[in-house]
Write the structure tokens for this entry.
Amino acid sequence: MEFKLFAPNNKAATLLGSFCLWEEIALEKDDRGYFRTKIQLEDGIYQYKFRVQSQSPCCEPDEWVEVNDPYATEIDRTTNTSTIRIKAGARIIDTYVWQHDDKKLPENEELVIYELHVADFCGTDGSDSGGKFQQAIEKLDYLCDLGINAIELMPVNEYPGDYSWGYKVRDFFAVESSYGATADLKQLIDECHGRGIRVILDGIYNHCDEECPLLLIDRNYWYYRDKHYPEDPANYWGPEFNCENFDSKLGIRPAWKFIGDVINFWIQEYHIDGIRYDAVRQLDNRDFLHWITREAKKTAGDKPFYNIAEHIPELTELVAADGSMDGCWHESFRIFAIENFAGDRCDLAKLKQALDAKQQGYQKTTNVINYLASHDRSHLLAEASFRNLDREAAFKQAKLGAVLLVTAVGIPMLWMGEEFGESTRQTPNQPNKLQWSLLENQPNHELLEYYKHVIRLREKFPALYTKNIEFFHENAEAKVLAYCRWSDEGTRAVVVGNFSDTYLSGYCIPNFPAAGTWREWMYNKIVEVGEEGFKFDLPEWSAQVFV
């Protein structure tokens, strides 16, 4: 069995392990910068570490330090060592056998994404028993019933401590052990695929934890010496990979190589279906982004794959025809939508920009991921503008937001719990378990059923997968906006929203898209539209959808 450590600038390294009673084994360095040795190992599970003469500024010159393998696929948290598993004389991750690789998965334009944090999503209120990945599997039928066909997992890489959102990764190839074993994560992904649900992982490639092994080996080889943007300390989250550094001797870009290896590993080993690239604004290397997203799709092969950027504020050129990404988080959707259905003013021009991303320069429906809340943004009912509302008004406006989210041009994404009115205010990296018991309350249960119904609308009408939208009626005084979504195959959905606190009785829309028989989707009513237009009642803070 070969052990190797890539450390081209380091003078010496040794191997320690349970297989040699932690006695040091010298490693030989080759001309490609690897320290290597081969050891005969019986089948079993072993722990190991490297000792290396550090080239990092945090150490004395050539100081000997112990580090975990930067490519370790499993970390033993009790001993803080790397783990290797041997079976039939070969290194393995686990013995999991995939069951659903032949399942056809939805295309990018068909997705309804559900963002979740594994630790807070799982279990019942206050329960910490059982593996978190296994608990997530138990919730998959709930997500299917909701209409979700993609989940976006906040980082599942090994992180320091007992609880974290995972955005300071320490071990990039290892699974967070408090969530479960590698086979448990594979089973979660496999069970998702069996239900037609794609799995998108949060990828952290801008920065890492301060004790990431690469930092102790040779910080300046993989990372910037100091902050990439010293003028912007608020957006510094840890040592940042230097995607500009080029090793002319070996002909490689060290950070590119490492991150490329990470991404290829997760796609190949865990069969993921997309990556959400965190902090792209700070990463800010277009050549690298083009290269890494091409690598990801090449590794994914023929199956649908989605490269998503988190770049706030938004940057449309990332998803242009010559851009590197397929889609990006559409923060302005959230801002403009909430301003209009929960704010103190109505700005239909901004609302139209939120609903029709083409007005902001986006070209495809898959270019934007729309959301009303995310892990970085409060649930609607925790927003300041909602906390001052009475309960009935708050849930009315939440339902109006649900219609906008699902019928806007783009891909809808829900932050876990939004569908049933979760309202606790979250603090980064602090536990905040979903309050599943809220579903025992009638308003929360009704909101969940409303979300199910509006998501089913998206499933039934491919018009909502397209970029086609026409705003055919707007009344700034009454705060009414109406728009039509359509497909080339002939399906249509007309949305009429009342963004005021006034019940509009007998409201008339003279230029409804077509006369004839329509079905109001949300309340399952058949209506007749005449040649002269359509007159109907439009309650306050509500939307009606005609198909």
